[in-house]
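Data card: per-record layout.
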Amino acid sequence: MEKSVFHPAQSRGDANHGWLHSKHTFSFANYYHPERMHFGMLRVLNDDTVAAGMGFGTHPHNNMEIISIPLSGDLEHKDSMGNVSVIKNGDIQIMSAGLGITHSEYNKNKDQEVKFLQIWVFPNKKDVTPRYDQITLNKADRKNTFQQILSPHAHDEGVWIHQNAWFHLADFDALHSETYKMKSPGNGLYIFNLEGSILVNNQILETRDGFGIWETDSVQITAQKNSEFLLMEVPMM
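The structure for this 237-residue chain is written out next.
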Protein backbone atom coordinates (compact mmCIF):
# COMPACT_ATOMS: atom_id res chain seq x y z
CA MET A 1 0.00 0.00 0.00
CA GLU A 2 1.52 3.27 -1.15
CA LYS A 3 2.45 5.68 1.64
CA SER A 4 3.31 9.37 1.50
CA VAL A 5 4.11 12.45 3.58
CA PHE A 6 3.67 16.09 2.53
CA HIS A 7 5.84 18.91 3.88
CA PRO A 8 4.54 22.35 2.78
CA ALA A 9 7.23 25.00 2.35
CA GLN A 10 5.88 27.13 5.20
CA SER A 11 5.98 24.19 7.63
CA ARG A 12 9.79 23.96 7.56
CA GLY A 13 12.01 25.03 10.42
CA ASP A 14 13.14 28.63 10.00
CA ALA A 15 16.55 29.65 11.38
CA ASN A 16 17.71 33.20 10.63
CA HIS A 17 21.19 33.91 11.99
CA GLY A 18 21.64 37.13 10.04
CA TRP A 19 24.57 35.90 7.96
CA LEU A 20 22.71 32.63 7.33
CA HIS A 21 19.02 32.08 6.68
CA SER A 22 18.24 28.36 6.63
CA LYS A 23 14.99 26.50 6.07
CA HIS A 24 15.06 22.98 7.54
CA THR A 25 12.83 20.27 6.07
CA PHE A 26 14.03 17.87 8.78
CA SER A 27 15.12 18.42 12.39
CA PHE A 28 18.45 20.22 12.46
CA ALA A 29 20.42 22.23 15.05
CA ASN A 30 17.86 24.16 17.14
CA TYR A 31 14.90 23.01 15.04
CA TYR A 32 13.45 19.82 16.48
CA HIS A 33 10.30 18.09 15.22
CA PRO A 34 9.82 14.49 16.42
CA GLU A 35 7.90 13.51 13.28
CA ARG A 36 10.46 15.10 10.97
CA MET A 37 13.77 13.50 11.90
CA HIS A 38 14.51 12.06 8.46
CA PHE A 39 13.00 10.38 5.39
CA GLY A 40 14.55 6.94 5.31
CA MET A 41 18.29 7.47 4.83
CA LEU A 42 17.76 11.16 3.93
CA ARG A 43 18.73 12.94 7.15
CA VAL A 44 19.06 16.66 6.27
CA LEU A 45 17.56 18.91 3.61
CA ASN A 46 18.53 22.51 4.31
CA ASP A 47 17.63 25.37 1.96
CA ASP A 48 20.40 27.87 2.80
CA THR A 49 21.00 31.52 1.95
CA VAL A 50 24.40 32.92 2.97
CA ALA A 51 25.00 36.68 3.11
CA ALA A 52 27.70 38.33 0.98
CA GLY A 53 31.20 37.52 2.20
CA MET A 54 29.96 35.28 5.03
CA GLY A 55 29.98 31.52 5.57
CA PHE A 56 30.49 28.45 7.69
CA GLY A 57 33.84 28.42 9.52
CA THR A 58 35.91 25.25 9.77
CA HIS A 59 33.90 22.50 11.48
CA PRO A 60 34.01 18.68 11.67
CA HIS A 61 31.84 15.84 10.30
CA ASN A 62 32.06 12.07 10.37
CA ASN A 63 30.13 9.11 8.94
CA MET A 64 27.81 11.15 6.75
CA GLU A 65 27.44 11.66 3.00
CA ILE A 66 27.16 15.44 2.49
CA ILE A 67 25.85 16.81 -0.80
CA SER A 68 25.78 20.49 -1.79
CA ILE A 69 23.78 21.76 -4.74
CA PRO A 70 24.32 25.50 -5.45
CA LEU A 71 21.28 27.40 -6.71
CA SER A 72 22.86 30.83 -7.22
CA GLY A 73 26.11 32.62 -6.42
CA ASP A 74 29.56 31.15 -5.73
CA LEU A 75 30.42 28.97 -2.72
CA GLU A 76 34.09 28.55 -1.78
CA HIS A 77 35.07 25.24 -0.20
CA LYS A 78 38.17 24.31 1.81
CA ASP A 79 38.75 21.05 3.68
CA SER A 80 41.26 19.02 5.68
CA MET A 81 42.01 16.86 2.63
CA GLY A 82 43.58 19.89 0.93
CA ASN A 83 40.73 20.63 -1.45
CA VAL A 84 40.08 24.28 -2.33
CA SER A 85 37.37 24.94 -4.89
CA VAL A 86 34.42 27.11 -5.85
CA ILE A 87 31.03 25.63 -6.70
CA LYS A 88 28.21 27.47 -8.47
CA ASN A 89 24.83 26.79 -10.02
CA GLY A 90 25.18 23.82 -12.33
CA ASP A 91 27.68 22.06 -10.05
CA ILE A 92 27.19 19.33 -7.47
CA GLN A 93 29.58 18.63 -4.60
CA ILE A 94 29.92 15.48 -2.49
CA MET A 95 31.91 14.77 0.66
CA SER A 96 32.07 11.33 2.25
CA ALA A 97 32.99 12.32 5.81
CA GLY A 98 33.76 8.75 6.89
CA LEU A 99 36.48 8.61 9.56
CA GLY A 100 36.31 12.40 9.90
CA ILE A 101 36.93 15.63 8.03
CA THR A 102 36.87 19.35 8.72
CA HIS A 103 35.76 21.90 6.14
CA SER A 104 34.56 25.46 5.61
CA GLU A 105 32.09 26.90 3.10
CA TYR A 106 32.08 30.64 2.36
CA ASN A 107 30.25 32.97 0.03
CA LYS A 108 33.07 33.99 -2.31
CA ASN A 109 31.32 37.21 -3.34
CA LYS A 110 31.16 40.41 -1.28
CA ASP A 111 28.20 41.84 -3.21
CA GLN A 112 25.60 39.05 -3.51
CA GLU A 113 24.03 36.19 -1.58
CA VAL A 114 24.73 32.56 -2.28
CA LYS A 115 21.89 30.05 -2.19
CA PHE A 116 22.42 26.29 -1.98
CA LEU A 117 20.88 23.04 -0.81
CA GLN A 118 22.77 21.20 1.91
CA ILE A 119 21.77 17.52 2.01
CA TRP A 120 22.95 14.75 4.35
CA VAL A 121 22.44 11.06 3.67
CA PHE A 122 23.27 8.31 6.18
CA PRO A 123 26.03 6.07 4.66
CA ASN A 124 25.78 2.31 4.32
CA LYS A 125 29.44 1.93 5.38
CA LYS A 126 31.03 3.48 8.45
CA ASP A 127 34.55 4.82 8.92
CA VAL A 128 35.42 4.93 5.21
CA THR A 129 38.37 6.98 4.01
CA PRO A 130 37.10 10.55 3.57
CA ARG A 131 36.78 11.79 -0.01
CA TYR A 132 35.68 14.84 -1.96
CA ASP A 133 34.35 15.26 -5.47
CA GLN A 134 32.57 17.89 -7.55
CA ILE A 135 31.32 17.94 -11.11
CA THR A 136 29.71 20.44 -13.46
CA LEU A 137 26.43 19.30 -14.95
CA ASN A 138 24.98 20.08 -18.36
CA LYS A 139 21.71 21.77 -17.41
CA ALA A 140 20.26 21.09 -20.87
CA ASP A 141 20.26 17.38 -19.98
CA ARG A 142 17.40 17.87 -17.49
CA LYS A 143 14.99 19.57 -19.91
CA ASN A 144 11.73 17.59 -19.79
CA THR A 145 13.54 14.58 -18.37
CA PHE A 146 15.24 13.32 -15.19
CA GLN A 147 18.97 14.12 -15.18
CA GLN A 148 20.84 11.73 -12.90
CA ILE A 149 23.25 13.65 -10.68
CA LEU A 150 24.10 11.03 -8.02
CA SER A 151 24.12 7.24 -7.67
CA PRO A 152 25.80 4.42 -5.70
CA HIS A 153 28.17 3.70 -8.60
CA ALA A 154 31.48 5.44 -9.31
CA HIS A 155 31.25 4.63 -13.04
CA ASP A 156 27.69 5.98 -13.40
CA GLU A 157 26.40 9.41 -14.38
CA GLY A 158 26.90 12.09 -11.73
CA VAL A 159 28.73 11.81 -8.41
CA TRP A 160 28.52 8.72 -6.19
CA ILE A 161 27.96 8.10 -2.48
CA HIS A 162 28.18 5.22 -0.03
CA GLN A 163 24.44 4.52 -0.15
CA ASN A 164 21.90 2.83 -2.42
CA ALA A 165 20.57 6.24 -3.49
CA TRP A 166 19.91 8.08 -6.75
CA PHE A 167 19.32 11.84 -7.17
CA HIS A 168 17.90 13.50 -10.28
CA LEU A 169 17.24 17.12 -11.29
CA ALA A 170 14.47 18.02 -13.72
CA ASP A 171 13.34 21.13 -15.59
CA PHE A 172 9.85 20.56 -17.02
CA ASP A 173 7.86 22.74 -19.35
CA ALA A 174 4.22 23.34 -18.42
CA LEU A 175 2.05 20.21 -18.83
CA HIS A 176 5.03 17.92 -19.45
CA SER A 177 4.67 14.58 -17.68
CA GLU A 178 7.08 11.72 -16.92
CA THR A 179 6.98 8.56 -14.83
CA TYR A 180 9.85 7.99 -12.39
CA LYS A 181 10.55 4.31 -11.84
CA MET A 182 12.22 3.28 -8.59
CA LYS A 183 15.76 1.98 -9.05
CA SER A 184 15.78 -0.35 -6.06
CA PRO A 185 13.07 -2.28 -4.11
CA GLY A 186 12.46 -0.88 -0.63
CA ASN A 187 13.51 2.63 -1.61
CA GLY A 188 11.36 5.72 -1.25
CA LEU A 189 11.36 8.95 -3.27
CA TYR A 190 11.51 12.45 -1.78
CA ILE A 191 10.60 15.25 -4.22
CA PHE A 192 11.65 18.83 -3.44
CA ASN A 193 10.08 21.38 -5.78
CA LEU A 194 12.57 24.18 -6.40
CA GLU A 195 10.36 26.38 -8.55
CA GLY A 196 6.96 26.26 -10.21
CA SER A 197 4.11 23.83 -9.56
CA ILE A 198 4.05 20.07 -10.09
CA LEU A 199 1.50 17.31 -9.62
CA VAL A 200 3.05 14.21 -8.01
CA ASN A 201 0.48 11.43 -8.32
CA ASN A 202 -2.44 13.30 -6.71
CA GLN A 203 -0.45 15.84 -4.66
CA ILE A 204 0.23 19.39 -5.85
CA LEU A 205 3.68 20.75 -4.89
CA GLU A 206 4.24 24.49 -5.07
CA THR A 207 7.65 26.19 -4.78
CA ARG A 208 9.79 24.69 -1.98
CA ASP A 209 7.18 22.09 -0.98
CA GLY A 210 8.50 18.59 -0.24
CA PHE A 211 6.75 15.25 -0.72
CA GLY A 212 7.92 11.76 0.25
CA ILE A 213 6.43 8.61 -1.23
CA TRP A 214 7.28 4.95 -0.61
CA GLU A 215 6.01 1.39 -1.00
CA THR A 216 5.49 2.09 -4.70
CA ASP A 217 7.28 1.09 -7.90
CA SER A 218 6.77 4.32 -9.81
CA VAL A 219 5.68 7.95 -9.43
CA GLN A 220 3.93 10.14 -12.01
CA ILE A 221 5.08 13.78 -12.15
CA THR A 222 3.32 16.42 -14.25
CA ALA A 223 4.31 20.10 -14.40
CA GLN A 224 1.39 22.48 -13.90
CA LYS A 225 3.62 25.29 -15.16
CA ASN A 226 7.34 25.58 -15.94
CA SER A 227 8.99 23.86 -12.96
CA GLU A 228 12.34 22.74 -11.60
CA PHE A 229 12.62 20.03 -8.96
CA LEU A 230 14.95 17.58 -7.24
CA LEU A 231 14.25 13.86 -6.83
CA MET A 232 16.02 11.92 -4.06
CA GLU A 233 15.56 8.16 -4.05
CA VAL A 234 16.85 6.63 -0.80
CA PRO A 235 16.49 3.39 1.16
CA MET A 236 13.73 3.66 3.76
CA MET A 237 15.65 1.64 6.38
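Known properties of this structure: The domain at 12-136 is CATH 2.60.120.10 (Jelly Rolls). The chain has two domains: 12-136, 139-235.

See the next section for split statistics.
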